[in-house]
Every structure is written in structure tokens, then in C-alpha cells.
């Protein structure tokens, strides 16, 4: 499940007006992008048309992967760090992480077509040690534990757009994330829906803000904003 694209119309981008930064339980209108059916259909179609050896469409943009990888390099994340890719989609980021030397990788997605596609691509790349599981992050039943780094590039966005009780989904996401991460583990989130201020508010409980990663900016209507927000948090007890 990967929602993000960096080709976002400026009118739907994230502006930096502090008065618009607070969160409510109805932040966004519900969308089909928040449903499992949408992503199952999307990845089934990609599975049918993707050539062997082709990673297919990178839904969230290559630059979103690159900026997180640059941060990991600068933060000296060890190659044996336990890394969870939340909503792995076609597994493109798992491929890049493995190529950068990371050896303890897990990807999860609630779409069976996504998992099949990711496994096929990883196998084609000769990356047979990467674990990909069909699993709903919100219903993992405590199976996700002990991770040094959790990476989200659109899953929290999708949960926020779910027509069926996104309020409870957002609360559950926070709890599952806290349980999945080790103390002082890192959370890297990339969003095209949430502003920096809103994400700081959402993840204020149990996390310290570490840094904002540079993303493309624009000016519109006298305001400066970003089409994508990318933040790093650290788990604290």
C-alpha cells in the first residue's frame, strides 16, 4: 500500500500556515485510496503487466526512497538493523535497502497481490533473504516487535483516508507502531496529505521529533508549502 506521489497539484499540497496545522478526527474526506479493495486491484493489475525483472511503478516516487536512504547513511543505521517497511507495495524500497547493504529486512502489506508481486521482484533480484508477509499493520496481533527502524511511505495516509472509521485506525496505528519499535528506534514517515505540524501532533505521544528531511517546496497564494512531508521520529518510553 503506497499512496504517495511527488507530482501533486499545488492546491492539494501541504502549506505551512501554523493555524492550519492542528489535527481533528476528520482531517480528510474519505477516499477509495484508503480501501484494501483499491490496492488489491491496483497490485493485481501491476502483477499482470509487470515484466519479470521490472520493479514496476514506484507509486511514491524514487526521490522518497533516496531521501530516506540518505538519512539512514548519515544516521549510521547499521547494516544488521531490523527494518520494517510498512505497506511495502511492490517491494521496490526493500530492493533498494538490500542493495545498500541492509540485511535484516521485513516488508508487510495487507494486499495479497502486493505480497506476490514483491516476492517475485525480490526473487528476480536474487534477494531471497528478505521477508515479505501478508499482514494488516492494524491487525498484526502483536507479531511486529523489536524493530530498529520502521518506514512508512503512504500507509498512514491511506489509513487516514479509509471510509470506515479512520479515527480508530489512526489511534491503533500509533499503538502498533510504538509496540513494533525498540526503545530509541526510528520511525521515518513520508506523507503527501499531512503537514509537518499535523504529523508532529499525531506522533507526539511516545516519540521525539528528530528532523525533517528536505522535500520540494512551492509557493501558492502567498504561502510556502511542500507537496510531500518527510519526518524522522525516535521512540521514547
Describe the structure.
It comes from Perca fluviatilis (European perch). InterPro entries: Efm4/METTL10, Methyltranfer_dom, SAM-dependent_MTases_sf. Keywords: Cytoplasm, Methyltransferase, Nucleus, S-adenosyl-L-methionine, Transferase. Its EC number is 2.1.1.-. This is EEF1A lysine methyltransferase 2. It is a single chain. The protein has 237 residues and is of the alpha/beta class. The N terminus is likely disordered. Strand 2, helix 3 and strand 3 form a beta-alpha-beta unit. The strands form 2 sheets. A 7-stranded mixed beta sheet has the order 4-3-2-5-6-10-7, with helices on both faces. Strands 1-9-8 form a 3-stranded antiparallel beta sheet, with no helix packed on it. The protein is built from 7 helices and 10 strands. The chain is 32% helix and 23% strand. The chain has a single domain, classed as 3-Layer(aba) Sandwich (Rossmann fold), CATH 3.40.50.150.
Amino acid at each position: 500500500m503506497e499512496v504517495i506521489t511527488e507530482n501533486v497539484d499545488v492546491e492539494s499540497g501541504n502549506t505551512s500556515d501554523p493555524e492550519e496545522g492542528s489535527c481533528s478526527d476528520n482531517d480528510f474526506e474519505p477516499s477509495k485510496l484508503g480501501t484494501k479493495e483499491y490496492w488489491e486491484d491496483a497490485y493485481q493489475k501491476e502483477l499482470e503487466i509487470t515484466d519479470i525483472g521490472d520493479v514496476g511503478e514506484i507509486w511514491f516516487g524514487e526521490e522518497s526512497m533516496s531521501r530516506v536512504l540518505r538519512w539512514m547513511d548519515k544516521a549510521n543505521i547499521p547494516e544488521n538493523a531490523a527494518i520494517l517497511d510498512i505497506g511495502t507495495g511492490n517491494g521496490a524500497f526493500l530492493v533498494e535497502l538490500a542493495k545498500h547493504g541492509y540485511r535484516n529486512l521485513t516488508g508487510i502489506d495487507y494486499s495479497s497481490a502486493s505480497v506476490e508481486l514483491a516476492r517475485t521482484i525480490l526473487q528476480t533480484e536474487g534477494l531471497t533473504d528478505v521477508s515479505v508477509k501478508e499482514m494488516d499493520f492494524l491487525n498484526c496481533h502483536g507479531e511486529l516487535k523489536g524493530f530498529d527502524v520502521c518506514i512508512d511511505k503512504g500507509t498512514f495516509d491511506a489509513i487516514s483516508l479509509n471510509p470506515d472509521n479512520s479515527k480508530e485506525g489512526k489511534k491503533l496505528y500509533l499503538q502498533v507502531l510504538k509496540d513494533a519499535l525498540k526503545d530509541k528506534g526510528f520511525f521515518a514517515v513520508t506523507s503527501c496529505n499531512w503537514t509537518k505540524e499535523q504529523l508532529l501532533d499525531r506522533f507526539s505521544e511516545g516519540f521525539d521529533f528528530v528532523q525533517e528531511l528536505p522535500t520540494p517546496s512551492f509557493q501558492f497564494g502567498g504561502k510556502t508549502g511542500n507537496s510531500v512531508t518527510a519526518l524522522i521520529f525516535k521512540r521514547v518510553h
